[in-house]
Each structure stands twice: as C-alpha cells, then as structure tokens.
Write a structure and sequence with these properties.
Shape: globular
Largest sheet: 5 strands, antiparallel
Helix content: 25-40%
Strand order of the largest sheet: 1-2-3-5-4
Distance between the termini: 63 Å
Order of helices and strands: HHHEEEHEEHEEH
Bound molecules: zinc ion
Number of helices: 6
Number of strands: 7
Structural class: alpha+beta
Strand content: 15-25%
Length: about 180
C-alpha cells in the first residue's frame, strides 16, 4: 500500500522554493507564451518584423537574444538559435560558437546597463528538466542582485517585478551595441 505525505502541498512548495533559489531557469517562466502566437514562439517572434515588440535585444547570424516575458528578474533574457532544434548536440559548431559569444555579450550588456551582482546562466534540456518550451533550445541568462530572493514577492509562481518589460528593453537593447 502506497503511503501519502502528510502535506503534499507544503512539500511541493518547499521543493519549488529550492528550485527557485538554486536554479531559476528550471522554472517554466515562459509557460503560456506561444499559445496565441500560432506556433513555436522562438520561431515566430523573430519573423514578426518588430524586434522591440517581440523584445528581441540583439540579432546574430544564427542566434539571437530575447527578453523573457515572464522574467525571474529584470533583464532575464534568453539566447536562442533561429533553427528549431531541441538538443544541444543538434547545434552546428558555428551555432555553438555564436551562442557562447552572445551569452558573453549579454553578460557584458547587463553589467553595463544594470550592474547586477551575479548571474545564473544555464539551459534546460527536456520538459523533465524544467524547460518551458522544450522543443526549441534556449539558454537563460539571469542577472542576480543581493537579496533578490528575499524582497521580491512571488505570486502564483510569477514574480512581481519592480520594472516593466518595456523599460528593461529600452535600457538593455542599446547596451548590446557597445
Ligand atoms: Zn522553434
């Protein structure tokens, strides 16, 4: 006979908090996005022709940087290949190189635009690992500030951010040109 935990909700909440603290990119921050885009959001957004509206910060040859619409922190962005591939091993050498370069450039832009104290950088491969859109590979770059896990309230797993996405975009996008 299977036993059930006394407080499954509390246990889940504790695990959720741990995941949020240690690996913010494991949360499905972009869940919900894409439902009304008519396809994979990472494929659709770069084709829209309005990078500011799509929150695309920078375009490279084979990869681009885009603000996360459901950020963990202001400036939480993703580096994404234009190609619709799920696995890291499916990337070409050129894409791997350019992705690493754009992650580095993103860190530089974030440092100059908003002076974070630290960064979480990582990717989830597969839904089990926490990927919101598992079918299209993307790498998270999350700026961190001292105390950001304490003072920012979490409502329904979405943080209440002290800054609008448009304001973040307006400050951060120019920093990619430096
Ligand atoms: Zn895609």
């Amino acid at each position: 006979m299977a036993s059930t935990p006394d407080h499954p909700d509390a246990a889940h909440e504790a695990l959720d908090t741990l995941q949020r603290l240690w690996t913010p990119w494991r949360m499905s921050y972009i869940r919900g996005e894409g439902k009304d885009l008519g396809g994979c959001p990472f494929c659709v957004l770069p084709r829209r022709g309005d990078d500011a509206a799509a929150l695309i910060l920078h375009r490279g040859r084979s990869v681009y940087a885009i603000l996360n619409a459901y950020p963990y922190n202001p400036g939480h962005l993703m580096v994404v290949p234009y190609r619709h591939v799920a696995g890291l091993e499916e990337l070409t050498e050129q894409e791997v190189r350019e992705m690493a370069g754009l992650v580095q450039r993103s860190v530089r832009a974030l440092r100059s635009a908003s002076g974070p104290h630290a960064f979480n950088i990582g990717m989830n491969i597969g839904t089990l690992a926490g990927a919101g859109i598992a079918e299209h590979l993307h790498q998270h770059v999350v700026p961190r500030w001292s105390g950001d896990t304490n003072f920012m309230p979490v409502v329904g797993q979405t943080r209440v951010l002290p800054e609008l996405l448009e304001e973040t975009y307006a400050r951060l996008a120019p920093a990619f040109s430096n």
